[in-house]
Structures
1.
Amino acid sequence: SDVCSSDLVTSGLLGNAGTINLGGGTFDNNGRVLVNSGQVSGWGTFRAGQWTNNGSMTFNGGSSTINGGLINSTGKIITIARNPALFTGNVTNGGTFKITSTTVTFAGSYTENGAYISDPSDNYFRDLNIGSAGVLVGGISDRFFVSGNFNNGATNHAAWDTASSKLVING
């Protein structure tokens, strides 16, 4: 289903096996959980009580705000490219977060159990929790800012690559 402009899904979608493509405006799932096995893309405000990504999510074309908690399942990808994104709820990544030439902000806690790849971008975290399989990857122009707690339990040292990045912990 293509959703454009400002759409409130009154009864809430339980799942998305198709495409939710927003070109500005607001997609509102009326506070209900949304399991995405298809594609969520575009820019604007995306609202759900909780998001579970079992497909793909790509935010670009303009600024995006993703309201509600988010779980990115193992092997799945979320891409934020060239335009800023704000995640307001707690985020848990088991797959890949790919950030390209932009700024991304996590206002809730962020838990990394997969790969967070920044190419070059500014990444703002309130609380950043890295699980044993989690890695951060960034280059010379990448910056990671943590305003709260930073808990690093990573054991995959070979895949972790932030030697050229800037990590600022203010918490």
2.
Amino acid sequence: VLAAFWLGRAQSMTWSNYREMRVCAIKAADFHRQSGSARGLYLSLCSWAIAGPAPPDESRRVLDELSNLEDPHWPPRLLAYRQLATCTAMMYANDPVGMQFAAKAGLALAKLAGADRSAAVFECHIVRSDLTLGNVEAALSRARDLVAHEHRRGGLLNASLGYLAVALLIAGDFLQARVVIADFFDCCRSAEWDGFDDFAGIPIRLTLGEQRHTSAARLVGYRDKATHRLGREKIGRA
């Protein structure tokens, strides 16, 4: 009962409080080890990894343990969860190639499972890795397709718009970026600002691109506060 409680609490913290999510996931993993539930331990460690930056040695240990626990006969939706954990770990390890590899593997599993929301999350990770690798046109094309898809489905529209805005800003298209950022703000407002803090850097990019340095400096303070609120601070060298 305690293992299930802490795992459920950890999963409920996704997108809102990653610091608390990590604490709950660690407790869930401890209880699932005691109960001998391989699947419960697997899910707990996935939540642990998804909760954000960790020291490199800890991340490697968690990913290795996940790989050893995984049963290839588990449902695709469950197997995709480890790929999401790997994406997060690779993102904070500054390994866009590893991140993209895991994201594409996860996307295939999510599509096989018919998990549209999970598929959209992996699409976002591919966009992010493409931008890091300098594949701006590929990122723009995928982000536009994702936004069109999420406009019809609506499950992850805020994040899709956020990544499209980032891609446009990197491409230097500030006029179109302003339009997308306005849509992003409206989408987040209608969803009680869900996901907004994850993209707190967008207004900074825009104001810097428009040479409004004073506004950019003010926004840096908000971004730092948002990062702290989410519990996304860097740890060690991750």
